[in-house]
Structure to design on (427 residues):
């Protein structure tokens, strides 16, 4: 009676299938085998199945795969132990690889898993191969089933979790896809590992394309906290402005953040910011933005509409700035905080952050103002002056609605890599 070789599973330990293409098992060099030969695995076969398995192996080694498969089927019918079933499927996989038969390969992989005899490392390799075969067939439900099983057993394997997220997306289950990729990001963070920028961008792209309003902003904030590049800041803030329906005051605070993160790029950005500031009575801030845009080559004063805005804004600046002390006196005497808030806005536009904070706080004390808006601007002024703790407290005081989202973006800037130092300030 022929015995089944205890080294017959070399295929299994080296099996790899790359995105639907079957790959033959790697064979170690003889020298490497001698130097690092693992302890031979011991199997427990039933007598009846062992005879059929031995004959199947001998036939397969001779290249008579069809006859070997007949013996494998015979062994499966006689199988009593987990190792009987495992070895039958092991030989089946070898034949499938030789015949380039993906259906038989999937059967052998699943059978090896179901036998209960595969090691954890082997099982994961078999599952990955099954998932790749399912993707090749465009059988997304089957791929999801395999990925869910892998993730259930390896919840801290972030790459597997991302793979599951991509499968959910293929199936049109976009909210689950975004949430799953977010889990993968958090798993890597918890392990102290760097998270690829592409993962953050993928989560954001899926949320945005899927019109998932509740997931777009968290995904945006996660991206710029981890990778606070000017390009990323521009992308997330353009998306935020596009999807949030902000009023002029909200837009102004978002454009201020774009300015501070160097996310303003072309003519349209600088012109819109300057024009919005001027419309809100902030001539000094408008002039500073025009000057910044001009110095960076984003604005050209030779263009008629830019020239016109310059001609409107420039004459206002001297008188506007000179009026602030008298407006401050009126604000202190006013029964409500509205004038104090307006005066603080003026000081903020000229980069006088300490004075702006003082008057914003007076506005809150007197009342009659939008507390969320005022706290946002206290946070901006404190962030620009380098008071991180104070800025955090102010932004955290903003609760509810789009204002809370604006504050979260400012907090992300404050707490991102290098974000404690403002990129630039309007003055």
């Amino acid at each position: 009676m022929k015995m089944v070789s205890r080294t017959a599973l070399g295929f299994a330990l080296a099996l790899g299938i790359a995105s639907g293409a079957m790959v033959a098992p790697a064979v170690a060099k003889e020298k490497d085998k001698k130097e690092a030969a693992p302890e031979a695995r011991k199997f427990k076969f039933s007598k009846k199945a062992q005879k059929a398995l031995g004959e199947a192996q001998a036939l397969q080694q001779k290249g008579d795969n069809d006859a070997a498969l007949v013996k494998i089927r015979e062994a499966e019918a006689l199988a009593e132990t987990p190792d009987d079933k495992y070895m039958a499927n092991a030989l089946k996989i070898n034949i499938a690889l030789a015949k380039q038969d993906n259906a038989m390969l999937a059967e052998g992989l699943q059978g090896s898993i179901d036998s209960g005899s595969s090691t954890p490392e082997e099982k994961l390799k078999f599952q990955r191969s099954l998932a790749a075969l399912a993707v090749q067939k465009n059988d997304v439900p089957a791929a999801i089933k395999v990925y869910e099983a892998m993730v259930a057993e390896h919840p801290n394997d972030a790459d597997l979790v991302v793979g599951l997220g991509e499968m959910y997306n293929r199936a049109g289950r976009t909210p689950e896809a975004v949430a799953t990729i977010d889990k993968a990001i958090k798993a890597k963070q918890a392990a102290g590992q760097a998270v690829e920028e592409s993962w953050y961008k993928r989560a954001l792209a899926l949320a945005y394309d899927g019109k998932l309003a509740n997931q777009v902003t968290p995904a945006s904030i996660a991206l710029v906290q981890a990778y606070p590049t000017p390009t990323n800041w521009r992308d997330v803030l353009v998306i935020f402005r596009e999807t949030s329906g902000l009023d002029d005051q909200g837009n102004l605070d978002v454009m201020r953040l774009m300015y501070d993160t160097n996310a303003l790029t072309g003519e349209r950005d600088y012109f819109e910011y300057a024009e919005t500031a001027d419309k809100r009575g902030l001539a000094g801030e408008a002039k500073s933005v025009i000057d910044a845009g001009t110095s960076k080559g984003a604005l050209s004063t030779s263009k008629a509409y830019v020239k016109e805005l310059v001609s409107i804004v420039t004459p206002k600046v001297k008188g506007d700035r000179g009026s602030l002390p008298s407006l401050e006196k009126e604000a202190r005497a006013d029964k409500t905080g509205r004038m104090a808030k307006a005066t603080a806005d003026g000081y903020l536009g000229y980069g006088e952050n300490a004075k702006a904070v003082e008057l914003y706080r007076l506005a809150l004390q007197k009342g009659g103002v939008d507390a969320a808006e005022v706290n946002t601007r206290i946070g901006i002024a404190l962030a620009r002056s380098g008071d991180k703790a104070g800025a955090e407290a102010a932004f955290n005081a903003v609760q509810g609605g789009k204002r809370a989202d604006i504050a979260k973006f400012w907090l992300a800037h404050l707490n991102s890599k290098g974000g404690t130092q403002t990129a630039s300030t309007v003055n």
